[in-house]
Amino acid sequence: MRPAAVTDFAQFATLRAQARSDDPEALRKAAQQFEALMMQQMLKSMREASLGDDVLGGEQTQLYQEMFDQQIAQHLAAGRGLGIADMLVRQLASGRDPANSRDSGLGTRDSGNGPQAGFAIQGTPASRLAHRAAEARPQTHSAPAAFVQSILPHAEKAARELGIPARVLVAQAALETGWGRYGIQHADGRPTFNFFGIKADKRWQGDSVEHMTQEYDGGEVTRERAAFRAYASPADAFDGYVDFLRANPRYAEALRHGGDAQHFVTGLQKAGYATDPAYARKILDIADGRTMKLALAQAQAATPRTITV
Fold this sequence. Notes:
Shape: elongated
Radius of gyration: 24 Å
Order of helices and strands: HHHHHHHHEEHHHHH
Largest sheet: 2 strands, antiparallel
Helix content: 40-55%
Strand order of the largest sheet: 1-2
Number of helices: 13
Number of strands: 2
Distance between the termini: 34 Å
Strand content: 5-15%
């Protein structure tokens, strides 16, 4: 049987549902998923051991490599594989007999601090293994995925108020913070939730943080220290972004976008929201890029509600 695509996250929910019945075939599929996961980790370690970085590499290249490694690992495990799946099937199948569970090495272990690592999740052997494989598998590009999931509800709310697609706001926040990895922080490490790089001018009455920023001046890139707004939560940050745009007449043209995302971000750039001459193009590239699509797919798979992007 042809292995499923790694971007088809629904396959894991189906597998867990089948595994609850303790079907031997479900156990086999779960074991193959787990072997594929181990193969993927081997491929990842091999890439990390390579000498130097590819001069043509970057975030998009890394994304494709991770997806390629996952698909190759899944394809190999669906065949003869390394024999790990066969071993797991034998051990877990024998583990159904309480008398044999001590020998499997895959049951619940207790060192005095509660259940430890191992297949300690309740349920059939197949469902325990399927849960482990499913929970580990959707971590491709985990930083963007986790970032998108953490801000998406707030982005959707703000997008409805502004009348633009939510993914555009997520993309702008991703550009400003490096997918949440380089967000502005307080001196003690607490996040400021300033996802949009809004500076704290004299009109701002809340907390602020001094931070180094990169600006473009006549084609030259300079670095300077400036004060930035600090918000109490992601919800406050997105509400503050909407209020900031609406309160500034300079962004009136950007807000007359008629639902056109390009008109909106181009209007922001023309109004001087950022000094980067490629600011609008970068936002649109991220909004329509593969990283965003994969992160949104993971967010969709992780929540029962309908996501509007």
